[in-house]
Structures are given as structure tokens and as C-alpha cells.
Write a structure and sequence with these properties.
Elements lengths: L2 H13 L3 E5 L1 H5 L12 H4 L5 H6 L1 H20 L4 H11 L5 E4 L5 H5 L4 E3 L2 E8 L5 E2 L1 H11 L12 E5 L8 H13 L2 E5 L10 H8 L3 E5 L12 E3 L3 H13 L2
Helix pairs in contact: 1-11, 6-11, 9-10
Bound molecules: zinc ion.
Amino acid sequence: MTIDEHRRIAGWLREAAHAVAFTGAGISTESGIPDFRSPGGIWSKSKPVYFQEFLASAAARREYWRQKCVAHADFAAASPNEGHRVLARWEAASRLRGVITQNIDGLHQDAGSRNVLELHGTARKIQCLGCHRLFEPQPLVDQFLASGDVPDCPECGGLLKHATISFGQDLSPEVLAEAGRWARECDLMLALGSSLVVEPAASLPRLARAAGARLVIVNRDPTDQDDAADAVIHESIGKTLAEIDQCVTCP
Ligand code: ZN
């Protein structure tokens, strides 16, 4: 990718009044978090527990917690990379409205992003399905690992689950509506590390394009929407954003 391409995208970012980033697993794999759906990812080794199974079966809840404790260790070991940090800096400098993410790892917030819409929830909290209270995961993970017993809500005895959207579980209508609003109101969308195949990931760039926004795609592999984008870069997100950032600050 040429420096001219980075300069061109930096120019769009400077011009934009409502730029929005949309991020998928690709930005977090650069922090060492496995892409669950990729070969070698957790879903190639374990079958995901669907939400209905979780509700219906104690054995499914135990399997869910076993898998989540593995993922918890990956998340705890990860820290944000340059891609996360550049987005946080752009938000702080009012160049970016915020980040819509498919990721559940909390690394955008760790990097300093404040306006983050988590389409698939967050693994940084445990939530009770009965009283909806939120809990810190570590003590409950420790409790499960020590006893093998799935913990119940300490307040109401209800079922405890990570505050993520499971397979078979509906996305939050509020978060989804807000993401759609950001997409329609943006004048530049940066789609980073998502193959843009699954919904709603596939729709958000289309909404933005339909409303007249420019679309920039950065992803290791080609995506379904490369043809519709104003610029496409198949390289590391951290490296690419750092280079664009240099062009933004020193045109
Ligand atoms: Zn409860």
C-alpha cells in the first residue's frame, strides 16, 4: 500500500464530521485473541452452547462455563494494540464519533475509547438472567474453576451468564438501533477486521454507503464489500492505522 493511499484516507478523516469505526475480530487477533470462528479457534474445537440449551440444561450450563473460562484466560492475557490506541486517540481528538464493535474483549475501552457500542455484549461482566445485575467475572470464574459448580446469582439465585450475546440469543435492540443510527449519520466509515458477512456487520457499511458516507475497509482477507468501498487495504490494522495517523497529524 502506498503512502498516497494512507494520505488520501487521512484527508477523508480530516474532512469528516461524523467518522465512525466498525471493528471485528481482526483487530483483536493482533492482540493475540483467537478469532473464535477461524480454523484453530474455539468453535473448531468445541461446539458452542446455544442460548436455549443454556436455559434448558444444567450440563449445557457447565459446558458453557468451561468454554468461557478458557476464553477468560485469553482475554485476561491480552492488551490493546496500536490499532485500538489510534482509534482511542482519534476519538479523544474528536476525529471519530466512536467505535461499533463485534468484539466482546473490552480492548477498545482499555485503550481509552469511551463511545463504544458492543453489538455482541461484553465478556468483562457476568450478568444475572433473573435480576439483570452485573458482576465482575474473576471471582465467579475462580469459583467455577475451583468447584466445577456453575455459580448462581448471589442476589436472587438466578442463572449467571457472561454479558455477551450467545448463539441463538437476540442482540440488544437498543444497541442495534444506536449502531444503525451511527451508520446512517456518519460521513466516513472505517470497517476494520471484519469479513462483513454476518449480520448486522454486513448491513452497517451498506447503511453508511446508502446515506452517502465514504467506506474504507481494512482487513487481512478480501471481504464481500470490497467492491463497494472507496479504499480497501489488505494489511495489518495496527500498522495501517498508525500510518494513516501519521498522515493525519503531519499532512
Ligand atoms: Zn440475580
